[in-house]
Design brief:
With 368 residues, this protein is α+β, with helices and mostly antiparallel strands. Helices cover 45% and strands 10% of the residues. It contains 15 helices and eight strands.
Length: 368
């Protein structure tokens, strides 16, 4: 397969294996196979591949020498929607329904499906064979087998995964009837290829058999080109590190507040920080967010007051004060960087205990 692997990304992984010794040989192979799966799954799903060079350069920069495989998995997981790693459902459905014969990597696809085994067959001299022939003027035997809608069936299923295979007898098979393709010398009944086992077992070859074989091979492909699996905790840690780095340009003391809002903030701040030793305070241009990995409250200064955006479903909020509001009913929350379920306004010191009570509920909910 022609891959778009960036030498930078592979070199970064190899350096971790060869020089830093932070990647075992098995992990290095797993990492390269993961990159191969990423490229091929995107190709099968018709996702943009023109920017793969930039993508792999970006991935290389995110590979951490002390934890290379996990950091690669996290980086792939955190790709934007346009750069996503296709999941099993998307990949399987695309393989089973698209015209794989039109893919430039069709031979690679079939060869990998065949040789995903310790017992490999040299297919280098083989060619791609359409089981149901390409000939638009199908023989009478094929028309009779396919039925009155033979032409529509041929147009729909001809180039799909279920109807293509590898053989060294392409010219011999030609557009012969199915039973002849099976029984002639060198026919499917004599084929040693695993790809052709299903074909040998069929008495007819219609859209049903093509569909069944396509689904079977697409399911096998999920093992050949593995999905992305990732430790979600590692993802959250990476996101938090990134947020901390972004927040370094802002200082809480520099945040614009009037005297009333500043006084209220100075009273609320230590109580939020005291909710747990894992609380992280991050300042933005116009607010202060308190997080563990996920945020649990964002404090937004207003004129003579504070607005707290609290990460708690409104229906799950225990608020004896009755002053909390459903944040989802607000079309837009000025200066908010997060989205949450509860809005609470602090106008004076008397509002603080109820606000901290709700914030504690949110903290305990995400810190579990």
């Amino acid at each position: 397969m022609e891959t778009a692997f960036s030498p930078i990304s592979v070199s970064a992984l190899y350096d971790c294996y060869e020089r830093a010794k932070t990647l075992t040989l098995a992990e290095f192979i797993q990492a390269v196979e993961l990159l191969e799966s990423y490229v091929f799954r995107r190709s099968v799903c018709d996702l943009q591949t023109r920017s793969l060079g930039q993508i792999f350069a970006s991935l290389a920069n995110r590979i951490q020498q002390q934890n290379p495989l996990t950091s690669l998995q996290v980086a792939l997981y955190r790709q934007s929607k346009k750069r996503r790693f296709p999941n099993d459902n998307d990949f399987r459905d695309a393989l089973a329904t698209r015209h794989v014969y039109d893919m430039r990597n069709c031979f690679y696809l079939l060869d990998r499906l065949e040789n995903f085994s310790k017992e490999r067959i040299d297919t280098s001299s083989f060619t791609i064979e359409h089981i149901m022939p390409q000939n638009e003027d199908l023989r009478p035997e094929w028309r009779a087998m396919l039925g009155n809608d033979w032409k529509q069936i041929q147009e729909t299923w001809l180039h799909r995964l279920g109807n293509v295979t590898l053989t060294g007898y392409n010219q011999t098979y030609s557009d012969r009837p199915f039973d002849v393709k099976k029984t002639i010398e060198g026919g499917f009944n004599e084929s040693p290829l695993r790809l052709n086992k299903f074909i040998r077992e069929q008495a007819t070859w219609t859209d049903k058999e093509i569909q069944d074989r396509g689904i079977q091979l697409a399911n096998k492909a999920l093992s050949v080109w593995p999905p992305l699996t990732v430790d979600i905790q590692a993802v959250k840690e990476a996101e938090l590190r990134e947020r901390i780095a972004q927040a370094e340009q802002y200082k809480v003391d520099d945040l614009s507040m009037d005297l009333v809002a500043r006084k209220l903030f100075n009273a609320v701040r230590p109580q939020l920080q005291a909710l747990g030793g894992d609380v992280v305070e991050l300042c933005t241009a116009a607010s202060v967010t308190y997080r563990v990995y996920d945020f649990f409250v964002e404090v937004i200064p207003r004129r003579h007051r504070l607005t707290l955006l609290i990460n708690l479903t409104f229906d799950d909020c225990h608020d004896p004060s009755g002053k909390g509001r459903n944040a989802t009913e607000a079309a837009f929350i000025i200066n908010a960087t997060e989205s949450g379920g509860v809005l609470y306004t602090i106008k004076d010191d008397a509002d603080i205990p109820a606000a901290i009570n709700i914030a504690r509920q949110a903290y305990e909910n995400i810190a579990e």
